[in-house]
């Protein structure tokens, strides 16, 4: 996929150092293990991710997983975007039932993570919008969700720019289920990428 400034492509083995650096820079690396162990974990994840593309296609399943975001002109890696499975008590959200203690259900989630030096330039929105267009246009998905913490104003801003309806879990449990962006196919405004 290509946008005006970006290319979204499958990850490949030589993305290891860039992915590792991203996880360190955005503070997602495991603080309880050494950097060597973190690199090993990232290598295993990347190998699994690359194999996952082919295996999901063979099973006629959605193309779950992360993709690299790179600058079109330079090819420089700037982050990740992807479709991911989300499992949460979505029925607790007001528009999806508003039932306290709702059972968990699975949804297709939208994920993005950018290097700090690339943030606040519209790259996350541009990459996520391209993936939404693919998910709704090519995959014919009916709905995409994204989730984050109440304190993550940047992600909530991206959700809003994508046209997502923002809903907060009105209940205290589970504590990690805080803010969800919901985008129904056909409900978003037209944007050029």
TrEMBL record:
Top-rank lineage group of the source organism: Bacteria
Matches recorded under Gene3D superfamilies:
3.40.630.30
Q: Per its UniProt record, what InterPro entries does this chain match?
A: Acyl_CoA_acyltransferase, GNAT_dom, N-acetyltransferase
The record's listing under PROSITE patterns reads: GNAT
Q: Which Pfam families match?
A: Acetyltransf_3 (PF13302)
Q: Where is the N-acetyltransferase domain?
A: 6-182
The protein's name: GNAT family N-acetyltransferase
Which organism is the protein's source?
Answer: Stigmatella ashevillensis
């Amino acid at each position: 996929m290509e946008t005006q400034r970006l290319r979204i492509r499958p990850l490949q083995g030589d993305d290891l150092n860039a992915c590792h650096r991203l996880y360190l820079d955005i503070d997602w690396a495991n603080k309880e293990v050494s950097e060597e162990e973190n690199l090993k974990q990232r290598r295993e994840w990347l190998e699994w991710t690359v194999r996952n593309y082919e295996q999901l296609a063979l099973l006629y399943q959605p193309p779950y997983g992360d993709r690299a975001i790179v600058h079109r002109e330079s090819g420089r890696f700037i982050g990740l975007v992807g479709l991911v499975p989300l499992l949460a008590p979505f029925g607790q959200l007001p528009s999806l039932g508003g039932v306290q203690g709702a059972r968990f259900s699975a949804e297709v989630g939208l994920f993005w993570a950018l290097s700090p030096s690339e943030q606040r330039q519209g790259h996350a929105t541009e990459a996520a919008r391209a993936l939404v267009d693919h998910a709704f246009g090519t995959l014919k998905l009916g709905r995409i969700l994204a989730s984050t913490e109440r304190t993550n104003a940047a992600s909530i801003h991206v959700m809003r720019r994508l046209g997502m309806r923002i809903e907060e879990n009105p209940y205290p449990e589970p504590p990690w289920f805080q803010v969800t962006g919901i985008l129904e196919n056909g409900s978003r405004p037209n944007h050029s990428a």
